[in-house]
Amino acid sequence: MDGRDQLDARSLAGLRFSAATAAFQIEGARSLDGRGRSIWDDFVDTPGAVVDGSSAEPGPDSYHRFAEDVALLSGLGVDRYRFSISWTRVIPDAGNDESANEVGLDYYDRLVDALLDAGITPEPTLYHWDLPVALEASGGWLTRDTAHRFTEFAATVSDRLGDRVRHWFTINEPASTSLQGYALGELAPGRSLLFDALPTVHHQLLAHGLTAPVLRDNGAVQAAPTINHSLILPASESEDDQIAASTLDAIMNRLFADPLLTGTYPDLSRFGVEMPVVDGDMELISAPNEIYGLNYYNPITVGASTGPLPFEMIPTPGAATTGFGPLWPIRPDTLRDFLTDMDRRYGSLLPPIVIAENGASFPEPDSVAGEIEDTARIDYLASHLAAVAEAGEAGVRIDGYTVWSLLDNFEWAEGWTQRFGLVHVDMASGTRTPKASYRWYRDLIAAARR
């Protein structure tokens, strides 16, 4: 069934709509105006690390062309814009010298003011993976000190922007940083520590716990992390596959939701790891948040494995897939089921949920002469919004929905090979061309408000 056939815009009344981007993926200007180096600069410059050998330059070049992005957001009619603030643009040599770069702060001043002038609420994310290189050289998220340095960075930013910015996200997708960045080496910083990477989870959550009060002291009415989750599906009913699915669920989901919502970690004894918890940490981490930021793209089907990991990700039977291939299945029902399971598991401890990222990449040309008819993306978004509506009807409190992404962007280790945007970007010229999904999302937002 066409995803649009499943969706009644009236079922989304009251939902706040947004679109998202991240600094490293869209800003360009990697070496301009005092910006320092992050672990992603090092990763991109490592031969073979990015599949197409591309860099993040110039790409959308939003550092110079942010006014075009604000105009596109205004045309969509979104309530909010979720963007991220580059740590190294604000504090270029963090870890060695905590001095702020006023030119970098000025850029975010201009962006925030432009959004407010357009009637759009700015919703910055303070950490979207761009750790300064000096901090990584000192241990990165494996060390407790990084959480304190992050809080100092957040204070610098909120001291400048807090008079106008009230809604913040702290740490984005800590699971990706810990599991893909430190455990498997697929993303920056490219370390392959397997289960020895798990302390990075605690230090990222601690960074959130330390930072949220600082933001609220500077006027914030929202200070929450965004956690990427997936519904984990066992490959079969066999005991081994069920155990494999339970193991990945613990690592991917409960390892983050449990400490944030209950103040405890799930049992990690099977991994031979003890979290580096200090007295008072869990109280900071589990302090109530105004919302629960949840990023969701796809379920993960797993079977038992005898390899270094006790599970193996396999294609989800019968599911269509996005441009990422067989391990990115399209199963919108699993978003509904994950949301209702979160509500059932955590009950009154779970604040209202904001879907902080949801979207899909599909093959598209590098250059276009006109609008792309990206019907597969529209179907994906419509069917997932229908799942959100179904979860809401089942009693789950959901306050917002965010499309990833406003723009085609540099897709991390995939370079320019994956396009998620509502707006096509020619990476050579920076030219922006709205896709059919842009028009669809604009019309949906308008219909939901009638």
Structural description of this entry:
This protein is an alpha/beta fold and 450 residues long. The chain has one domain: TIM Barrel. It has 14 helices and 13 strands. A hairpin with a 6-residue loop joins β8 and β9. The longest helix has 24 residues. The model has no long low-confidence stretch (mean pLDDT 97).
In short:
This protein is an alpha/beta fold and 450 residues long. It has helices spanning 23-26, 39-44, 62-76, 87-90, 102-117, 133-137, 145-161, 174-183, 199-217, 239-262, 281-285, 332-346, 375-393, 436-448; strands at residues 16-20, 80-84, 121-127, 167-172, 222-229, 232-234, 292-296, 300-304, 311-314, 353-357, 398-404, 423-425, 432-434.
Output the keywords.
alpha/beta; TIM Barrel; 8-stranded parallel β-barrel; 3-stranded mixed beta sheet; 14 helices; EC 3.2.1.21; GH
CATH class equals: Alpha Beta
The overall pLDDT, averaged over residues, is 97
CATH fold category name = TIM Barrel
What count of structural domains? Answer: 1
What is the ordering of alpha helices and beta strands?
EHHHEHHEHHEHHEEHHEEEHEHEEEH
The major sheet is characterized as: 8 strands, parallel, barrel
Beginning-to-end CA distance, first to last residue: 26 Å
The DSSP helix count reads 14
What is the global morphology? globular
Strand content range: 5-15%
Helix content: 25-40%
Number of strands: 13
